[in-house]
Amino acid sequence: MFESAQLPQKMDKKTFRKLEPELREALLSAQLEMVEKKPFSTIIVVDGLDGAGKGQAIARLYEWMDARHLTCNAYGDPMEEARLRPRLWRYWRDLPAKGETAVVFGSWYQKAMRDRIYDKIDDETFEHELAKIQRFEKMLAQENVLLLKFWFVLPREEQEHRLKKIDKKGAARHVLADWAALKNHEKASKVGEKIILETSKGHAPWFVIPSQDPEYRDATLAQTIAGSMRVKLDEGESSSIAAPPVVSAWKSQSAVDAVDLTAHLGKADYEKQLSKYQDRLSDISDTKAFSKKGLVLVFQGNDAAGKGGAIRRVIKPLDPRIYRVHSISAPTDEEKSRPYLWRFWRRLPRKGHVGIFDRSWYERVLVERVEGFAGHDDWQRAYNEINEFEQELTDCGYTVCKFWLAISADEQLRRFKAREEIAYKQHKITDDDWRNRLKWDQYAIAAGDMVDRTSTDFAPWTLVSSENKRHARIEVLKTICKRLEDAL
């Protein structure tokens, strides 16, 4: 799930120094307006792997914000006063008043995380604990608390490097939580992923921050806090519109941004591989094992990225009786009168069949988010709802393959112009395509969030460079064949 955590997320010091005044201004402006109007309080939960720099990041927040209205609450093992009361008592006790902000270390997630990592509780008990936490957080949100949760991640090698540096400095190791010790890196990451997938809601979202680079980490943290405060402050006026990036000069890099668009496949190799993988797909779809499974294919990507062309290469070797292509556009009045997933449930294929979605339920966190058709809480909540939907599909024996086809802005412009000039392609270009192009950066941010929050073990995203269409089509076919072979 943590694709962006493995990317070389960097911000040079010169860029950071230039950005810092803008970040400070955005944070202070939002904080002081909140202090003055007192419309809500803010709780910032900071969790993640040891050595990721959580303390350093919060120290910088204290430099940038008004410390008189900022409190840091650090929780370790409960003292006797807390042990004699319900587990959540101390967190209720320390809730900030309206207009105030509290930073929480060692939050209500800590005990459940530690117990699951060390196998003191089983999955069922862990799920029960998470359900109780979700009820707690929902109650806070309903009482007008802005709850922001950050998970700081590091590759194992970088965590080991940092822990060694702490040893050399003779720092007190007791400040590092046992649950995230280096030897438990893999399990801690998996438990963290489960927590994020199950407890990231519109009223209490998780934000995953790659923490290899301190400047990148702290800028992302500050930008997210300031932007979220601004959305909450402006509720009632523009809450249905996605908040624009607080900082115009820089945006964080996502897994989508990191797609290598130079990938290329020559015509001769393409023809050879096309025949190979189409034959494989045909053979797989004819097996008895496939008749007991279902296949769902999701195609998303930049406008003009070649989704239709890729789909045509997929369906060519298939029996037309076993597949159906669904081209998803704006919902009808009938569909808008029901929960947004309703129209996709109705289109699911039966076992032994293939459902192909040219755009999908992910429009909730793309078009509906960027264009303001869905409220802030609605599209934030959708990440978890989509994960649960796809989990249900896989539990029922479906294979879910999701593709993001990526092209550059320059290549998109070239393809748009070509569509206008070629008569039989003119129907492919609309005024909406040109309008969406003006919001390229907003769509890029939304796509990056989508991949980070919905790429799971059971339904991973495949990010495909589509600058060269031949390369993209083969990558799609190859991935489908491999996923099916692994599943059957």
From TrEMBL:
Chain ranges of the Polyphosphate kinase-2-related domain: 13-231, 266-486
Name of protein: Polyphosphate:AMP phosphotransferase
Record keywords: ATP synthesis
Keyword NAD: no
InterPro entries tied to this protein: P-loop_NTPase, PolyP_AMP_Tfrase, PPK2-related
Gene that encodes the chain: pap
SUPFAM superfamilies noted in UniProt: P-loop containing nucleoside triphosphate hydrolases
Enzymatic reactions: [phosphate](n) + ATP = [phosphate](n+1) + ADP
Superkingdom to which the source organism belongs: Bacteria
Gene3D superfamilies in alphabetical order: P-loop containing nucleotide triphosphate hydrolases
Entry keyword Hydrolase: no
Leader sequence residues: none
